[in-house]
Amino acid sequence: MSIITGYSTHDIRFPTSLSGDGTDAMNTDCNYSAAYVILNTTPNADSNAAASDTLKGFGMTFTIGKGNDIVIEAIKQLSDKLVGMPIESLFSDMGAMWELLTSDSQLRWIGPEKGVIHLATGAVANAVWDMYARSRNKPLWKLIVDMTPEEIVKCSSLKYLSDALTPEEAVQMLHERQSTKTEREKRALQEGLRAYSTSVGWMGYTTDKVQRLTKEALDLGFNHFKLKVGVSVDDDLARAKVIRDIIDDPQYQNKDKRVHAKTIEGKNAGPTGNVLMIDANQVWDVEEAIAYVKKLEQCKPWFIEEPTMPDDVLGHARIRKGLKDIGIGVATGEHCANRVLFKQLLQAGAIDVLQIDACRLAGVNECLAVMLLAAKFGVPVCPHAGGVGLCEYVVHLSMIDFISIAPTFDRNVVEWVDHLHEHFKYPVSVNSHGRYNAPLDKSCGYSIEMHQESIEKYTYPDGSYWKYEHPTIISKLQEGRRYV
Ligand SMILES: [Mg+2]
C-alpha cells in the first residue's frame, strides 16, 4: 500500500505590490504569496510507470508576503505527522485525517484553530484532499458531490457546532437536496458559476484604469462588481460614481447579458441589473462604520464587506442593525479564524453574506462545515478569492455548495480576480457570461498545482526573480525619485 514518504515546502512570493494589485484601505503593499506544500508518496507499483506518475498532493495557504516563512515552519511540523501513513487509510476517513492535524496537544497550544497554525493546517489538509481527488481521477468538487450525505458529514468539521447544527440535521439537509442534485450539477456544468469582479476596484488603481477594467468586466459578462473603500468618503464616492456611471449605462452592456430577477433580489441592483459591493477591509470601529457607510448610501451597494475587526461578532450585529434602514447588508469571512466564529456570526444575525476562505479555514473539512452552517441559517456563501490560488480553490467549494448544499444557490456569487492564474497547471477561467467554468480535468485534484518553473522563479528570497530581476526593477522605479 502506498504511503506518504515525505514532503517539500516552498515560500513563493509574487511582487504584486509593484502594480497595486490587491490594494485596499488596510493592505497597501501586498505581495501575493503562497506557503506551499507538496506531499510525496511511494512510487507507482507499476514498474513501467514514469516517475512523474507517482501520486502527489499539492496544497497551499495564502499570505501577503512577510510571515510566509513562519507559516512554512508550521506546515513542516504538521506534514511530519503524515509521513509514513498509508494514503488509503487517510482517504478512508478524511474526518480522522483532519482530527490528526488539529489535535496535536502541543501545536494546539499555539492556536487553537486560529492564526499561523490554522493557516498551515489549511495547506496540509488541502494537499491531502488534492491527493485523494487525483487518486480517484476526479476533480475535488466531483469527488465530494458524489459522496452520500452521510459521507460528506463525516468529512465535515462539526465539533463545537452542535448548539447550532447537529450531524443528524446536516445529513437531513443534504438528503433533502439529493433528488434535485443531478439537475443542479448539469446546470453548473453547462452554465458555470456566477462570479463577481474585484479586479476593477483596487484602491491603488487610477480612475482611467478603473474605467477601463469596468468596461472590460462588463464585456466579459459580469454583473457584480466590488470597490475598495474606507480612506476618504469623497474619494470613495467619486470612484463609486466612476463605476456606477459605466455599469448603469445601457450603452456599455454586453449584448448577450442575461440577468434573472431572482439572482439580484435584494441586492440594490441598478437599472441595467448590475450590482455594486463595497469592501473596507476592517478599517473602522463599530459606530464609525455605520456613520461612514451611511455617507456612501447614494452609491447603493448590496453590502459593506469587513466593516470592522473580524472577531467582533456583536459589532457586526450592531452594524447590520444600524444599516438596515438604508438597505445595505453586511458581509464578512475572509479573516474569520474558524467555524466557531462563523457559528456566532450566524447565531447573532450579524451577516447577510458569508465569505469563506479556502485556506484561512483549515481546508476542505472546515469549509464543508461552514457551508452546512450557512445553509441551515439560509445565508448565501460568496467565497473570498482575492489572492493567489484562491480562485483555483474556491470554484471547487462553490461547485459543492451549489450542487449539494446551498438553498440560496441562485443568489450566490464567487469572487474573481484576474491575477496570477498563469502559474497554475490547471488554471480556472470564466466564460463569456461572467461565470466560472467548472474544473473538468480528471487529473486536476484541487486545481492548486503550480508549474515547477513558477515555483523556482518566485521562491523567496533565492528564486531567480527575487535574486536577479527584482533588484533591477526596484532600482529603475527609484530613478529620479526625490526623498525629502
Ligand atoms: Mg475583502
UniProtKB/TrEMBL annotation:
<dbReference type="GO" id="GO:0000287">
    <property type="term" value="F:magnesium ion binding"/>
</dbReference>
<dbReference type="InterPro" id="IPR029065">
    <property type="entry name" value="Enolase_C-like"/>
</dbReference>
<keyword id="KW-0479">Metal-binding</keyword>
<dbReference type="GO" id="GO:0009063">
    <property type="term" value="P:amino acid catabolic process"/>
</dbReference>
<dbReference type="InterPro" id="IPR046945">
    <property type="entry name" value="RHMD-like"/>
</dbReference>
<dbReference type="InterPro" id="IPR013341">
    <property type="entry name" value="Mandelate_racemase_N_dom"/>
</dbReference>
<keyword id="KW-0460">Magnesium</keyword>
<dbReference type="GO" id="GO:0016836">
    <property type="term" value="F:hydro-lyase activity"/>
</dbReference>
<dbReference type="GO" id="GO:0016052">
    <property type="term" value="P:carbohydrate catabolic process"/>
</dbReference>
<dbReference type="InterPro" id="IPR018110">
    <property type="entry name" value="Mandel_Rmase/mucon_lact_enz_CS"/>
</dbReference>
<dbReference type="InterPro" id="IPR036849">
    <property type="entry name" value="Enolase-like_C_sf"/>
</dbReference>
<dbReference type="Pfam" id="PF13378">
    <property type="entry name" value="MR_MLE_C"/>
</dbReference>
<protein>
    <recommendedName>
        <fullName>Mandelate racemase/muconate lactonizing enzyme C-terminal domain-containing protein</fullName>
    </recommendedName>
</protein>
<feature type="domain" description="Mandelate racemase/muconate lactonizing enzyme C-terminal">
    <location>
        <begin position="207"/>
        <end position="326"/>
    </location>
</feature>
<dbReference type="InterPro" id="IPR029017">
    <property type="entry name" value="Enolase-like_N"/>
</dbReference>
<dbReference type="Pfam" id="PF02746">
    <property type="entry name" value="MR_MLE_N"/>
</dbReference>
<dbReference type="InterPro" id="IPR013342">
    <property type="entry name" value="Mandelate_racemase_C"/>
</dbReference>
